[in-house]
Write a structure and sequence with these properties.
It is a single chain. With about 375 residues, the chain is an alpha/beta fold. It folds into two domains: about 260 residues, TIM Barrel (Alpha-Beta Barrel); about 100 residues, no CATH class. About 45% of the residues lie in helices and about 20% in strands. The protein contains 15 helices and 16 strands. An eight-stranded parallel β-sheet has the order 4-14-13-12-11-10-6-5. The chain has a three-stranded antiparallel β-sheet with strand order 1-2-3. Strand 11, helix 8 and strand 12 form a beta-alpha-beta unit. Helix 7 packs parallel to helix 8 and helix 11 packs antiparallel against helix 14.
């Protein structure tokens, strides 16, 4: 994986970069749509490409349970299986093991858990996570880690962080696929000394990129930003920096300001299916009765397919009638908004005016622009 920083903003930590995988060139900062089960829900690969996506995220836990990573491998790997010729990042499965499994038990060797699908029992070790991700054939794999929720006691957070480092070393030893990058994940909850110690140890092991995990898991927005402001600039400048699972538009803007290169979140796609649509001034709930005869698009001036062809009134009708087209059109708009937001930040960094762009972003959202 080749990564280069091609521009810095003079007034902030924002940076404009680019990395190349065997499947695509990815311009950063970048938002990665989430394709949990080998699909970004309701959209085709061609629609994703038309929206500007060049990298998406797949889920190790879900694809391991169904249809099975070895089956995906026999069918040509994840790219061939889902008909996507761009880049793919797969998470380690750690977050889902702790958040979705009916029962889980953490051991030094790995995590024993009960499937949320059929109740079957499984164990994922660091070596297992690597084997699954190598079978899937993603361009970027993530180390298996323990994702702590909040609140968490300091002593447990320390034990968990140290175990995550030991697991990261085992992942590095087990990872043998040369066409797949491997990222380490910095843990430590809201405790800065633990985060810093984790990062130091991960850098000693050596990875192709570094991520901040276990944020937006129950802590306050202020606590999340404190961790981000402290840790993001300390991640190695020569490698991609990834903020995992954090994704309001404001979170993306602040992450970019602090030098983060990569983001993912289910928010634009999940909220689309729940009728929440993003705009430059905030969000709207399309089910509200005030849109029943509204002939305007979701956002006047938006160039997405949905806004160019359909009114709020029609979208409300589809959503209230639970028509499948509602989820498709809403998802197209929300991903267009997110990907266009990232494109705007990339351009502003190139022009050396990111801070000016950021002030305009907040002014529009407050109604003062």
């Amino acid at each position: 994986m080749d990564f280069e920083v091609i521009a810095h903003d003079p007034s902030s930590g924002a940076r404009r970069g680019r990395f190349v995988t065997s499947h695509s060139t990815v311009e950063t900062p970048v938002f990665m749509p989430v394709g949990t089960q080998a699909t970004v829900k309701s959209l085709s690969p061609d629609e994703l490409k038309d929206l500007g996506a060049r990298i998406i995220l797949g889920n190790t836990y879900h694809l391991y349970l169904r249809p099975g990573s070895e089956r995906v491998s026999r069918l040509g790997g994840l790219h061939s299986f889902m008909g996507w010729d761009g880049s793919i990042l797969t998470d380690s499965g750690g977050f889902q093991v702790f958040s979705l499994a009916r029962i889980n038990k953490i051991e030094e060797d790995g995590v024993v858990f009960q499937s949320h699908i059929d109740g079957s029992r499984h164990m994922i070790r660091p070596e297992t996570s690597m084997e699954i991700q190598m079978h899937l054939g993603s361009d970027i794999a993530m180390c298996f880690d323990e994702c702590t929720t909040y609140p968490v006691a300091y002593e447990y957070a320390r034990e968990s962080m140290e175990r995550t480092v030991r697991w990261a070393r085992r992942c590095k030893d087990a990872h043998t696929r040369e066409d797949q990058a491997l990222f380490g994940i910095v843990q430590g909850s809201v405790f800065m000394d633990l985060r810093e110690a984790c990062l130091e140890k991960l850098v000693e092991i050596g990875f192709d990129g570094y991520a901040l995990g276990s944020l937006s898991v129950g802590e306050s927005k202020e606590q999340m930003l404190e961790v981000l402001e402290t840790m993001a600039p300390r991640l190695p400048a020569s490698h991609p920096r990834y903020l995992m699972g954090v994704g309001t538009p404001e979170d993306l803007v602040e992450g970019v300001r602090l030098g983060v290169d990569m983001f993912d979140c289910v928010m634009p796609t999940r909220n689309a299916r729940n009728g929440m649509l993003f705009t430059s001034w905030g969000s709207i709930q399309i089910k509200n009765s005030g849109y029943a005869e509204d002939r305007n698009p979701i956002e006047p001036g938006c160039t997405c397919y949905t806004c160019r062809h359909f009114s709020r009134a029609y979208l409300r009708h589809l959503f209230m009638a639970r028509e499948l087209l509602a989820y498709r059109l809403n998802t197209i708009h929300n991903l267009h908004y997110y990907l266009n937001l990232m494109a705007g930040m990339r351009k502003a960094i190139e022009q050396g005016r990111f801070e000016e762009w950021r002030k305009e972003f907040y002014a529009v959202r407050s109604g003062d622009y």
